[in-house]
Amino acid sequence: CGIRIVEEARKYSKKIKSTKNAHQGIVRNGFFDEIKEGDMVIARNNAPLVDAYFLIIEDNKKAKIYGKDIEKGLVSLSERCMTKHKDSFIDRLYEELDKVVEELTRKGVRSPDKHLKYGNLADKIDLLEIIVNKVNSTAEIVPLIKTMFVENDTPGVKLMTCHKSKGMENK
Asked: What burial letters (b/e) apply to 76-85, b meaning 16+ CB within 10 Å?
């Protein structure tokens, strides 16, 4: 990454270092109207990336979220909870979350809502709620998810978590 980008990142982790011959790089304020194809948008969590994806697409720019593993989890959960109606689909997602709470409680977990398993499922549900609000029917959910995520470099705006961005270069 560029020197300025690394300087910004070092505010959060001193472990990050730039390479010897790194370019200066550009750090911007993060307004959506300044995003150009080829830019990287990095967030700590996935939900802001899904929101950003739709804003960028609605602005007629190409965008992809890096993380086929995220796609796989969303598709699996969607297929498990699929119904004909969006409201009942959302209800089924929350029934899955209730099952996790029951399972964790049976195992003696005192605060199931603070457990990693609960958090991971709640994050997926947050993402699916955003996606559900962008489709006309539940039949569109899985095909849409499959267009949103990539694993390798692709043209357009690159959306990723901090974790996914480690080791990536952006020209």
From this structure: ebbeebeeee
Give CA–CA dist 105/110, Å, rounded: 7
The per-residue pLDDT for 14 is 76
Supply 55's token pair. 């804003």
Give every residue of the chain whose pLDDT is below 50, as ranges: 171
d(CA 130, CA 45): 14
pLDDT score of 168: 62
**Three-state secondary structure call for residue 42:** strand
Under 8 Å between Cβ of 155 and 62: yes
Nearest 5°: phi and psi at 168?
A: -90, 145
Q: DSSP character for 28?
A: -
- For 24-152, list the strands marked E by DSSP: 40-43, 63-66, 149-150
pTM: 0.81
pLDDT for 171: 45
Q: Which structure tokens are listed for 144?
A: 């849409």
E runs forming strands in the chain: 40-43, 63-66, 149-150, 157-161
Rg (C-alpha) for the chain, rounded Å, is 18
Rounded CA gap, 95 and 89, in Å?
10
